[in-house]
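Hi support team,

I submitted a single chain yesterday and got back a structure, but I'm not sure I'm reading the C-alpha coordinate output correctly. Could someone confirm the output below corresponds to the sequence I sent? I've pasted both exactly as they appear in my results page.

Thanks,
R.
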Amino acid sequence: MNTLVVPAHNESGVIGRLLSHLVSDARPGEFDIIVVANGCTDNTVEVAASFEAPVRVLSIPVPSKREALLAGDHAATSFPRFYVDADVELGTEDIRLLATALQQPGVLAVAPERQLALARRPRLVRWYYDVWARLPEVRGGLFGRGVIGVSQAGHERIANLPLLQGDDLAASLSFAPHERAVVAGARVVIHTPRTFADLLRRRVRAATGTSQLERTEGAPASTARTRPSDVVAIAWREPRMALPVALFMAVAVLARLRASRAVARGDYSTWLRDESSRQSAGA
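Hi R., thanks for writing in. Yes, this is the structure output for that exact sequence:
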Protein backbone atom coordinates (compact mmCIF):
# COMPACT_ATOMS: atom_id res chain seq x y z
CA MET A 1 0.00 0.00 0.00
CA ASN A 2 1.24 3.50 -0.85
CA THR A 3 1.08 5.84 2.14
CA LEU A 4 0.80 9.59 1.62
CA VAL A 5 1.34 12.06 4.46
CA VAL A 6 -0.09 15.51 3.73
CA PRO A 7 0.69 18.22 6.32
CA ALA A 8 -1.90 20.99 6.06
CA HIS A 9 -1.98 24.31 7.92
CA ASN A 10 -4.97 26.46 6.91
CA GLU A 11 -5.18 24.88 3.47
CA SER A 12 -8.97 24.81 3.05
CA GLY A 13 -8.68 26.54 -0.32
CA VAL A 14 -6.41 23.92 -1.88
CA ILE A 15 -6.63 20.64 0.03
CA GLY A 16 -9.75 19.55 -1.85
CA ARG A 17 -8.00 20.10 -5.18
CA LEU A 18 -5.13 17.81 -4.21
CA LEU A 19 -7.31 15.07 -2.72
CA SER A 20 -9.66 15.06 -5.71
CA HIS A 21 -6.73 14.34 -8.03
CA LEU A 22 -5.28 11.67 -5.76
CA VAL A 23 -8.43 9.63 -5.26
CA SER A 24 -9.89 10.05 -8.76
CA ASP A 25 -8.57 6.71 -10.02
CA ALA A 26 -7.39 4.99 -6.86
CA ARG A 27 -8.09 1.28 -6.52
CA PRO A 28 -9.41 -0.15 -3.24
CA GLY A 29 -6.55 -0.66 -0.79
CA GLU A 30 -4.02 1.09 -3.04
CA PHE A 31 -3.55 4.28 -1.01
CA ASP A 32 -3.58 5.39 2.59
CA ILE A 33 -3.77 9.20 2.52
CA ILE A 34 -3.17 10.81 5.92
CA VAL A 35 -4.00 14.50 6.07
CA VAL A 36 -2.47 16.04 9.19
CA ALA A 37 -4.19 19.34 9.93
CA ASN A 38 -1.84 21.28 12.18
CA GLY A 39 -2.92 24.37 14.10
CA CYS A 40 -5.71 25.12 11.63
CA THR A 41 -8.08 28.02 12.23
CA ASP A 42 -10.05 27.51 9.01
CA ASN A 43 -12.11 24.54 7.80
CA THR A 44 -9.24 22.43 6.45
CA VAL A 45 -10.36 19.53 8.64
CA GLU A 46 -13.93 19.67 7.37
CA VAL A 47 -12.90 19.83 3.72
CA ALA A 48 -10.48 16.91 4.06
CA ALA A 49 -12.95 14.88 6.12
CA SER A 50 -15.55 15.22 3.35
CA PHE A 51 -13.51 12.68 1.37
CA GLU A 52 -14.07 9.02 2.11
CA ALA A 53 -11.46 6.26 2.31
CA PRO A 54 -8.57 6.15 1.48
CA VAL A 55 -8.42 9.63 3.07
CA ARG A 56 -8.19 9.91 6.83
CA VAL A 57 -7.68 13.08 8.83
CA LEU A 58 -5.61 13.75 11.93
CA SER A 59 -5.68 17.07 13.75
CA ILE A 60 -2.96 18.40 16.02
CA PRO A 61 -3.05 21.77 17.83
CA VAL A 62 0.50 22.87 16.97
CA PRO A 63 0.98 24.84 13.71
CA SER A 64 4.15 22.99 12.73
CA LYS A 65 4.97 21.11 9.54
CA ARG A 66 7.62 19.12 11.40
CA GLU A 67 5.12 17.98 14.06
CA ALA A 68 2.60 17.17 11.33
CA LEU A 69 5.12 14.98 9.51
CA LEU A 70 5.97 13.18 12.75
CA ALA A 71 2.28 12.61 13.52
CA GLY A 72 1.70 11.29 10.01
CA ASP A 73 4.67 8.95 10.29
CA HIS A 74 3.38 7.66 13.62
CA ALA A 75 0.00 6.89 12.07
CA ALA A 76 1.43 5.32 8.90
CA THR A 77 1.87 1.58 8.66
CA SER A 78 3.27 0.91 5.18
CA PHE A 79 5.86 1.77 2.53
CA PRO A 80 6.58 3.30 0.13
CA ARG A 81 5.79 6.60 1.84
CA PHE A 82 5.21 9.94 0.20
CA TYR A 83 5.28 13.38 1.77
CA VAL A 84 3.07 15.75 -0.19
CA ASP A 85 2.49 19.49 0.26
CA ALA A 86 -1.18 20.40 0.34
CA ASP A 87 -0.91 23.18 -2.24
CA VAL A 88 0.39 21.13 -5.18
CA GLU A 89 -1.46 19.08 -7.79
CA LEU A 90 -0.60 15.39 -8.07
CA GLY A 91 -2.55 12.50 -9.52
CA THR A 92 -3.07 8.81 -8.92
CA GLU A 93 -0.89 7.71 -11.83
CA ASP A 94 1.92 10.01 -10.70
CA ILE A 95 2.11 8.20 -7.37
CA ARG A 96 2.09 4.84 -9.16
CA LEU A 97 5.06 5.86 -11.30
CA LEU A 98 6.96 7.06 -8.25
CA ALA A 99 6.22 3.85 -6.37
CA THR A 100 7.45 1.77 -9.32
CA ALA A 101 10.70 3.75 -9.43
CA LEU A 102 11.29 3.01 -5.74
CA GLN A 103 11.34 -0.69 -6.59
CA GLN A 104 14.50 -0.23 -8.67
CA PRO A 105 17.69 -1.52 -6.99
CA GLY A 106 19.52 1.18 -5.09
CA VAL A 107 16.81 3.85 -5.42
CA LEU A 108 15.86 5.13 -1.98
CA ALA A 109 14.09 8.42 -2.74
CA VAL A 110 12.11 9.83 -5.64
CA ALA A 111 10.24 12.92 -6.76
CA PRO A 112 8.19 13.87 -9.83
CA GLU A 113 9.05 16.27 -12.60
CA ARG A 114 7.90 19.85 -11.99
CA GLN A 115 5.32 21.72 -13.98
CA LEU A 116 5.50 25.36 -12.93
CA ALA A 117 2.16 27.16 -13.17
CA LEU A 118 3.21 30.54 -14.58
CA ALA A 119 0.11 31.67 -16.46
CA ARG A 120 -0.97 35.21 -15.58
CA ARG A 121 2.09 35.72 -13.39
CA PRO A 122 4.00 39.03 -13.53
CA ARG A 123 6.94 39.15 -15.91
CA LEU A 124 9.47 39.35 -13.08
CA VAL A 125 8.09 36.15 -11.52
CA ARG A 126 8.23 34.36 -14.89
CA TRP A 127 11.78 35.56 -15.48
CA TYR A 128 12.91 34.32 -12.08
CA TYR A 129 11.54 30.83 -12.61
CA ASP A 130 12.86 30.68 -16.18
CA VAL A 131 16.34 30.87 -14.67
CA TRP A 132 15.68 28.84 -11.52
CA ALA A 133 14.33 25.87 -13.49
CA ARG A 134 17.54 25.74 -15.56
CA LEU A 135 19.93 25.44 -12.61
CA PRO A 136 21.72 22.06 -12.34
CA GLU A 137 20.96 21.55 -8.65
CA VAL A 138 17.30 22.45 -9.16
CA ARG A 139 16.96 20.08 -12.12
CA GLY A 140 18.54 17.14 -10.31
CA GLY A 141 17.45 17.70 -6.71
CA LEU A 142 14.30 16.39 -5.07
CA PHE A 143 13.59 19.70 -3.32
CA GLY A 144 11.20 22.41 -4.52
CA ARG A 145 8.73 19.87 -5.88
CA GLY A 146 6.32 19.54 -2.96
CA VAL A 147 6.60 15.74 -3.12
CA ILE A 148 9.24 13.31 -1.89
CA GLY A 149 8.77 9.55 -1.81
CA VAL A 150 10.97 7.10 0.11
CA SER A 151 11.34 3.38 0.52
CA GLN A 152 11.63 1.93 4.01
CA ALA A 153 15.43 2.13 3.76
CA GLY A 154 15.15 5.69 2.51
CA HIS A 155 12.90 6.59 5.40
CA GLU A 156 15.47 5.31 7.85
CA ARG A 157 17.96 7.71 6.26
CA ILE A 158 15.85 10.82 6.91
CA ALA A 159 13.88 9.86 10.02
CA ASN A 160 16.35 11.43 12.42
CA LEU A 161 17.15 14.63 10.59
CA PRO A 162 17.21 17.66 12.91
CA LEU A 163 14.39 20.19 12.92
CA LEU A 164 15.00 22.30 9.80
CA GLN A 165 12.96 24.88 7.94
CA GLY A 166 14.25 23.58 4.61
CA ASP A 167 13.11 20.02 5.26
CA ASP A 168 12.78 19.05 1.60
CA LEU A 169 16.28 20.31 0.78
CA ALA A 170 17.72 18.40 3.74
CA ALA A 171 15.90 15.25 2.65
CA SER A 172 17.17 15.58 -0.92
CA LEU A 173 20.76 16.10 0.23
CA SER A 174 20.57 13.01 2.43
CA PHE A 175 20.81 10.84 -0.68
CA ALA A 176 23.65 10.52 -3.16
CA PRO A 177 22.71 11.22 -6.79
CA HIS A 178 22.59 7.51 -7.60
CA GLU A 179 20.23 6.88 -4.67
CA ARG A 180 17.59 9.38 -5.77
CA ALA A 181 15.59 9.80 -8.95
CA VAL A 182 13.42 12.41 -10.61
CA VAL A 183 10.90 10.15 -12.31
CA ALA A 184 10.09 10.86 -15.94
CA GLY A 185 6.36 10.87 -16.59
CA ALA A 186 5.39 11.58 -12.99
CA ARG A 187 4.34 15.21 -12.77
CA VAL A 188 3.53 17.67 -10.02
CA VAL A 189 2.05 21.10 -10.64
CA ILE A 190 3.70 23.81 -8.53
CA HIS A 191 1.65 26.96 -8.14
CA THR A 192 4.10 29.86 -8.27
CA PRO A 193 3.58 33.25 -6.57
CA ARG A 194 1.20 35.68 -8.23
CA THR A 195 3.13 38.73 -7.02
CA PHE A 196 6.78 39.69 -6.92
CA ALA A 197 6.48 40.44 -3.19
CA ASP A 198 5.36 36.88 -2.53
CA LEU A 199 8.18 35.53 -4.67
CA LEU A 200 10.62 37.45 -2.52
CA ARG A 201 8.99 36.07 0.64
CA ARG A 202 9.53 32.55 -0.66
CA ARG A 203 13.15 33.26 -1.52
CA VAL A 204 13.90 34.81 1.87
CA ARG A 205 12.44 31.70 3.50
CA ALA A 206 14.58 29.47 1.28
CA ALA A 207 17.73 31.48 2.00
CA THR A 208 17.04 31.35 5.73
CA GLY A 209 16.54 27.60 5.55
CA THR A 210 19.80 27.11 3.68
CA SER A 211 21.71 29.15 6.26
CA GLN A 212 20.15 27.10 9.03
CA LEU A 213 21.18 23.92 7.25
CA GLU A 214 24.79 25.09 7.15
CA ARG A 215 24.77 25.83 10.88
CA THR A 216 22.97 22.76 12.23
CA GLU A 217 24.80 19.76 13.61
CA GLY A 218 23.57 16.53 12.09
CA ALA A 219 22.34 18.18 8.89
CA PRO A 220 23.69 17.12 5.48
CA ALA A 221 27.11 18.58 4.75
CA SER A 222 26.25 20.01 1.32
CA THR A 223 23.61 22.71 0.90
CA ALA A 224 23.33 22.81 -2.92
CA ARG A 225 23.86 26.58 -3.00
CA THR A 226 23.65 28.05 -6.47
CA ARG A 227 27.07 28.95 -7.84
CA PRO A 228 27.38 32.25 -9.70
CA SER A 229 29.07 30.35 -12.52
CA ASP A 230 25.92 28.24 -13.02
CA VAL A 231 23.81 31.37 -13.42
CA VAL A 232 26.28 33.10 -15.73
CA ALA A 233 26.48 29.97 -17.86
CA ILE A 234 22.75 30.26 -18.60
CA ALA A 235 23.18 33.73 -20.09
CA TRP A 236 26.27 32.57 -21.98
CA ARG A 237 24.43 29.68 -23.60
CA GLU A 238 21.24 31.67 -24.17
CA PRO A 239 21.89 35.40 -24.69
CA ARG A 240 18.16 36.12 -24.60
CA MET A 241 18.27 35.12 -20.92
CA ALA A 242 20.55 38.02 -19.95
CA LEU A 243 17.79 40.14 -18.37
CA PRO A 244 16.16 37.21 -16.50
CA VAL A 245 19.62 36.21 -15.21
CA ALA A 246 20.24 39.75 -13.95
CA LEU A 247 16.85 39.72 -12.22
CA PHE A 248 17.55 36.30 -10.71
CA MET A 249 20.87 37.43 -9.26
CA ALA A 250 19.32 40.60 -7.83
CA VAL A 251 16.57 38.58 -6.13
CA ALA A 252 19.16 36.15 -4.73
CA VAL A 253 21.24 38.97 -3.23
CA LEU A 254 18.21 40.73 -1.76
CA ALA A 255 16.82 37.49 -0.31
CA ARG A 256 20.14 36.66 1.35
CA LEU A 257 20.38 40.14 2.83
CA ARG A 258 16.90 39.89 4.31
CA ALA A 259 17.49 36.34 5.48
CA SER A 260 20.65 37.44 7.29
CA ARG A 261 18.49 39.38 9.75
CA ALA A 262 16.57 36.25 10.73
CA VAL A 263 19.81 34.29 10.92
CA ALA A 264 21.36 36.93 13.19
CA ARG A 265 18.36 36.58 15.53
CA GLY A 266 18.45 32.79 15.30
CA ASP A 267 14.87 32.91 14.00
CA TYR A 268 14.29 29.77 11.98
CA SER A 269 10.65 29.30 12.95
CA THR A 270 8.96 32.25 11.21
CA TRP A 271 7.32 30.80 8.09
CA LEU A 272 7.09 33.40 5.32
CA ARG A 273 4.07 31.93 3.58
CA ASP A 274 3.04 32.84 0.06
CA GLU A 275 -0.73 33.29 0.13
CA SER A 276 -1.04 34.54 -3.45
CA SER A 277 -0.38 31.15 -5.03
CA ARG A 278 -3.31 29.74 -3.07
CA GLN A 279 -5.78 32.16 -4.66
CA SER A 280 -8.34 30.96 -7.17
CA ALA A 281 -7.45 27.34 -6.46
CA GLY A 282 -10.61 26.12 -8.09
CA ALA A 283 -9.99 28.02 -11.32
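A quick pointer for reading it: The chain has eleven helices and seven strands. Let us know if anything else looks off.

Best,
Support desk
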